[in-house]
Write the structure tokens for this entry.
Amino acid sequence: MSSEEFEKLHEVYKSLYDELKLMPNRASGCHGEEKKRLVRDFDERFGEAEEMLQGMDKELQSAPASFRNQMSSKVRLYRRDLGKLQREMKTSDLGLGFAGRAGDGRHSVYGSQNEQSTQIQSQRALLLQGTDSLNNASRSIERSQRIAAETDHVGRDIIEELGEQREQLDRTRDRLVNTGENLSRSRRILRSMSRKLVTNKLLLAVIILMELGILGAVVYLKFFRK
């Protein structure tokens, strides 16, 4: 909503209303063509004032709730004032214009103007209904876009989380590979140590056997051979 645009419409309406509220009294003292011209001027100003109120209604649709409620009440009062002026003008036209047209059976000029005003009101109602439908559709689209944006955001978060989990799994796999390599090296070292231990045992056994043989030969030579 543009508060500046609303204020402009409000100022134009006030100016039109100030002109309109003087016309019923002026019409009471007019006759003939001058009265017809005044009625036409009133209808034109009335239509312009209605357009200003419609514009104010449109601006209020996107206004904050507190401001919208306050100004909507004021716009309703403006419409009531316009309706009052319209009735006053119609009364003035019928009261003084009837004597001047009593024999010819014609309708008042303002009667036809009032019919046009009624048509304008009907068109305005249809326009407001169409505007409401468009606003509802716009809000529905905005909600859909917001949900889509939220879904997209959640999807990106899930993808990022899956990416982090994949990195963790890759690191875990690398650690398992390194652990497997370390275990293989440990097994090779253990086998090598086992072979060395067996070799050392065999060498020790040979040495012991050799020492026993030498000891036996010495004993034999010393005690049994004369």
